[in-house]
Amino acid sequence: MIGRKYINMALALPFLISWGFIIFATNIGMIYAGRIFAGIATGAVCVVAPMFISEIGETSIRGALGSFFQLFLTMGILLVYAAGSVVDWRTLSGICAIAPAMLAVGMIFLPESPVHLVKKERRNDAIQAIKWLWGKQCNSRAAIQVIQNDVDAAAGKASMRDLWTIPANRAGLIICLCLMLFQQISGINAVIFYTQPIFQSAGSSLDASLCTIIVGVVQVFMTFGSTLLIDKAGRRILLMQSSIVMGACLTMLGIYFHLKDGGTDVTAIGWLPLVSLVLFIVSLLSWFRPNSMDDDG
Q1: Residue 91 sits in a domain of what CATH number?
Q2: What is the pTM assigned to this prediction?
Q3: Where in the cell is it found (predicted)?
Q4: Is 154 exposed, middle or buried (0-12, 13-18, 19+ CB in 10 A)?
């Protein structure tokens, strides 16, 4: 295993290839190829990046650092919405290519994850990494011992086979898989990727670019409060409520387009697409915490 640092650096390559295909696309096949590379890289980075962040953070701030991944994800979407309102799609793709390049360069100056170094029995390197990350005044040897204890405990955890053969694990696995499946088929990707075309097709009196940016802003601000809301309201109730609201929002949006395409004058309800998508995004936030299925025992 080459470590979290170098995997993150390597993932910049498929991202750059992806944007290269899209920037210089002369046919739809090149755009498809670019999206395939981007999809693979995105799936990988959504696993490796949070892992690296959690492993380099000091214990007292590790939870806060972990929440930044989702926050910056929504901020990135907002920036793309804003830039996309003033530049063409090729230029926007060029702007997006800057991010993976910055990732690759920035990672050069960071140390490897102390957890990975401990797993590889490179304790001296792990101590130096902790001093670089947490400051020279930290008790690096005590931190290494905590990491070593965690690594030893993880080594004795259940195998992949136990996820299915043990009834309690199997139930949790099925529930988690169903939650993630329904999250993906709820329409979120279609809404995020096609927010501006949706508003343009709606023919609303409101500016499509402005409506898109409003949706992006709502995502960012709701991400701040989503963790507190989820912890206080409870996962099950919030999931049920959000599912109902999301379904109602998509239904309202569908009715709007049905009326519009049928020749009905929808000027009086031109605000409906914006309200529907904003409420959809707000309700969706409760889907981002599937880890309550974890069994600490």
Answers
A1: 1.20.1250.20
A2: 0.78
A3: Cell membrane
A4: exposed
